[in-house]
Design brief:
With about 190 residues, the protein is of the alpha+beta class. The chain is built from 7 helices and 7 strands. The chain has helices spanning about 40-45, 55-70, 90-100, 110-115, 120-130, 155-165, 185-190; strands at about 5, 15-20, 25-30, 105, 140-145, 170, 175. Helix 4 (about 110-115) crosses helix 7 (about 185-190).
Length: about 190
């Protein structure tokens, strides 16, 4: 049975939907508040009549996410997320995205190349657009090849704010300024094959 908790954050409330599996608590989904739609409303639409409940492990993740949104460095393990609800390709994309460290960005194209799919940038973007675990899997660290932000479940303002809190700079036109992209070497190697 699904359960949910709501955490107030610097970017509006977020909801963590979780289950208690045989192996312990597993996060099914994290819902961010976005422009014009609160996480609580999204949760009630997607998961009607789900009871509010928590446990120490889920509370710890909620507090960690809250601290991350306030700008503190946080790393999350994937052991508490229920990846079984994602398809094989999305699981690969999420694991690859999860490996991008704080303060670095990559592109949808480079992530695709890293996964052996050099023409799969759109598929990577779609997999990240449906990321059920934003912030635990930091999909805000994936941007377009032209250094534009691309989409984000919490909206472009939240994506930019998260990146700025990680030390990522932007130029006057709103493009990311960085010396190199994470997975850049792997992307070049894949393209030269």
């Amino acid at each position: 049975m699904n359960r949910t908790i709501v955490k107030p954050t610097a970017h509006g409330p977020l909801c963590i939907v979780w289950i208690h599996a045989v192996s312990g608590p597993k996060i099914v989904r994290i819902l961010l508040s976005g422009p014009g739609l609160s996480a609580e409303r999204r949760s009630s639409e997607l998961y009607p009549a789900v009871p509010v409940a928590s446990c120490p492990e889920i509370d710890a993740v909620g507090e960690g996410v809250k601290r991350l949104l306030a700008g503190e460095p946080m790393d999350f393990s994937l052991h508490l997320v229920d990846l079984s609800r994602c398809g094989p390709f999305q699981r690969q994309v999420l694991a690859t995205e999860h490996a991008i460290p704080r303060g670095r960005v990559s592109t949808y194209r480079l992530i695709a190349a890293r996964l052996g799919k050099p023409t799969g940038a759109r598929a990577v973007g779609n997999a990240l657009a449906g990321n059920p675990f934003p912030l635990i899997v930091p999909c805000h660290r994936a941007i377009r090849s032209d250094r534009e932000l691309g989409g984000y479940q919490g909206g472009s303002e939240m994506k930019r704010a998260l990146l700025e809190k990680e030390g990522i700079a932007f130029d006057s036109s709103g493009r990311v300024v960085c010396g190199s992209f994470f997975y850049g070497e792997a992307g070049r190697a894949a393209r030269s094959r």
